[in-house]
Amino acid sequence: MPYPIADLHCDLLSYLSKIPKSSPFDKEQIACAIPWLLEGKVKLQVMAIYTDVQKGSMVSATKQAHIFEDLLQRYPDILHQVNLAFLENFSQKSEIGILAAIENAAGIGDEQASWKEIYPQFDALLKSVGQFAYISLTHHTENRFGGGNYTEGIGLKEDGKRLLDYMAGKRIPIDLSHTSDLLAEGILSYVDRHRLPIPVMASHSNFRSLWDHKRNLSDEFAQEIVHREGIIGVNFLRAFLDDKVPERLFDHLLYGIQLNENAICFGADFFYTADFPDPSRHPFYFPVAAHAGKYPSILEKLSTSATVPQLKKVAYENVVRFYQKIWN
């Protein structure tokens, strides 16, 4: 399948930030290395600025934002900043368009930071990368903004509300991929109650009705995202698809297409796995989705159950249309 690919989530920036002498071209170390992106015909790749909830998270986020800038400066023949102009005639692009996102707002404000520090940090990160594809308030755990996906009984906190207020009107979507259910509910309620112009999406999440995992979306939240004309990127991690069945990837994609074919897309979540301590998680990806070079074969397999227009929507059209609408 010759379709260009738009993908909503990878962790190349955190890999380059934390691993000494790492290279964006090292195919052996990370599944979203630039050669894999080229092989997979990826033309839009969102790169997350990921941080833990700890002291130094703001410094880490700043470092990753500078790495994003450096990639654009060092490889102008390969990489291009994604903006509204880049999305025009998207399918004809030769470069890989890259766009930064915030995964865990601890990188915007750690637990000790004052709001006199948080607002300038937000602005500085945004200036460095040009635009945020989205912001996730949390990762797996709790932070000052709310409850992550592995927390219980922790929703949207007052600092989370304050950050949403600051996001409003900046054309930055809020990402539900790492929220607790209570946080997702709180975000949606707060956005609606205060009529905040904040788009809603899930950058790298699968469907809980197919695989019962807290990282996956309930049908209720998936339908809310669709109702709000958001998008949902299907995650390639084995733990969130099905521990044993590689074909479950296609079940999640098809489930999303049936939910709403204008909402489903890719959010592979390729990251550096060599130092992950839990042996039960290895391998992180099934061979069918082992790296970003697999997109053409994934679409080929999906073509047995989806139409050509649906394939194009999943591959890139839904993502391109989503950001064109936000940025216009």
What does this structure look like?
Helix 1 crosses helix 3 and helix 3 packs parallel to helix 5 (about 115-130). Helices cover about 40% and strands about 10% of the residues. The chain is of the alpha/beta class and about 325 residues long. The strands form 3 sheets. Strands 1, 2, 3, 4 and 5 form a 5-stranded parallel β-sheet that branches. Strands 6-7 form a two-stranded parallel ribbon. A two-stranded parallel sheet has the order 8-9. The chain has one domain (about 5-325): Metal-dependent hydrolases (TIM Barrel), CATH 3.20.20. The mean pLDDT is about 95. It has helices at about 10-20, 35-40, 55-75, 85, 115-130, 160-165, 180-195, 220-225, 240, 250-260, 295-300, 310-325; strands at about 5-10, 40-50, 80, 95-105, 130-135, 175, 200, 230-235, 265. It has 12 helices and 9 strands.
Write the layout of secondary structure elements.
Layout: E1 5-10, H1 12-18, H2 34-39, E2 42-50, H3 57-74, E3 79-81, H4 84-87, E4 96-103, H5 115-129, E5 132-136, H6 158-167, E6 174-175, H7 181-193, E7 200-201, H8 219-227, E8 232-234, H9 238-241, H10 248-259, E9 264-266, H11 295-302, H12 308-327
Helix pairs in contact: 1-3, 3-5
